[in-house]
Amino acid sequence: MQSKYILALILTLFLNSLSSQTLLLPEQVFDGTELHKAWVVAVDENRITYAGPLNGLKNVGSYTKKELKGMTLMPGIIEGHSHLLLHPYNETEWNDQVLVESHAERAIRGAVHAKKSLMAGVTSMRDLGSEGAGYTDVYLKKTIDDGIIPGPRTLMAGPAIVATGAYGPKGFHDGVKVPLGAVPVSGRDNAIKEVRTQLGHGANLIKIYADYRWGKGEPSQPTFLQEEITAMVEAATTAGRYVVAHASTPEGMRHAIMGGVETIEHGDGGTAEIFGLMKENGVALCPTLAAGDAIEQYKGWKKGAEPDPERVAKKKKSFQLALHSGVNIVFGGDVGVFAHGENYRELELMVAYGMEPIKALQSATSLNANILHFDELGMIQKGYLADIIAVQGNPVENISQMKYVRYVMKDGVVYKDN
After folding, report:
1. In terms of C-beta density within 10 A (0-12 exposed, 13-18 middle, 19 or more buried), how is residue 316 classed?
2. Of 129, 149, 157, 347, which sits most exposed with the smallest number of CB within 10 A?
3. CA–CA separation, 175 vs 161, rounded Å?
4. Nearest 5°: CA angle at 112, between 111 and 115?
5. Cross-strand pairs, 292
6. Cα separation, 99 vs 178, whole angstroms
7. Cis before residue 169, ω within 30 degrees of 0?
């Protein structure tokens, strides 16, 4: 009896090991750097074990085969600038999201947004600020990591850090106390303390505002002193973390670059000189093209039927300067300003504004994995984690095919197969 039990157990374990081995058979594979025809990809549990021609794989018969006819297999998309706790501003203005919606409501919305993102092929994301919801983003990350809700792997910034007086909501008299969309600080010591507080609460990185509007309707101006930015970066890097900066003015960008941030978010007013300084100092640009494009449409711009508004024209120019400079471009659309799950809009605009499709796809996979500290991700390569998606058609030929995600695997688990 005992020998029969042992034999049955061995057989069960053998069959389970077979069921965990999957062979994906697409039309072509984008491996994170280039496109390959007639490749297959093997997955065992949550790791890629082979990527290459079928005749190079041993024991083909031991795999469960998955045909992906007419599809391009590629690494899961890595979103570089998201706000899971925000939803489109044409649904609810930012002020009302901060002042009216409870943290509980925003957390529930965030759970819905996380699933939509995953179903759209976003298997990893960097979320840059809870926008007035404290550490709700950190708690949302925990529910994803614990398997309570489906969603991408995340790096969470917690509440952003702003200079005292330089953020909103604004417009209330001085006797009214309102929740702010970020945490205000002043002075080197106060800034260092807030960085350490946020890291202690579970923030994976720190986001600061290097410039912003001091008054309603005014243009952005630098906020922090150079010594304040430098101090925040030193406090974060000492703890093994890093800092990113919202910055759209040349001087704000310069302060952030010289302070040691790793990425500049937005960069609307970047000049050839500033982008050259970024390249020289190894600072990447996350241009967030889709956010401005969406906001102008909310204001009434009829895209395609009317000339580009000033904001869009300026963005195109700065993005093209950035491309010419050779600075690393991070894929990140500021999604939340527009609908979660429509992350592809940023890729479409990157290409429309002058980037080669394959470069845009590299940005959203292997480059983002490297710059944003997502280890063992962003490549279809032996030993990497099995975060894999398939899209209909060939996005290298037509970037808009990124709308049509048919297959999603995260950490070896299939979440979408249609």
Report:
1. middle
2. 149
3. 23
4. 90
5. none
6. 7
7. yes
pLDDT at 3: 55
Contact, 296 vs 317, CB < 8 A? no
Reported for 163-166, long-range contacts at CB under 8 A and 24+ positions apart, including other chains, are 163/209, 163/212, 163/223, 163/224, 163/228, 165/214, 166/209, 166/212, 166/213, 166/214, 166/223
Rounded CA-CA distance 331/357 in Å is 12
What are the counts of helices (DSSP H) followed by strands (DSSP E) for the chain? 13, 19
Say if CB 62 and CB 384 are below 8 A apart: no
Lateral strand order in the sheet of 263-266: 183-185, 161-163, 206-209, 243-247, 263-266, 284-286
Q: What is the pLDDT of residue 118?
A: 98
Positions of the chain with pLDDT lower than 70, given as ranges: 1-19
Query: What is the predicted pLDDT for the residue at 215?
Result: 87
**Phi and psi at residue 282, to the nearest 5°:** 70, 30
- Which pLDDT score, from 0 to 100, does residue 2 have? 55
Judged by DSSP in three states, 366 sits in helix
Q: Three-class SS string for 289-304?
A: HHHHHHHHHHCCCCEC
Tokens coding 232: 């925040």
Q: What 8-state DSSP symbol labels residue 401?
A: G
Residue 20: per-residue pLDDT: 77
Helix (H) or strand (E) holding 360: helix 357-362
Query: Whole-model pTM?
Result: 0.94
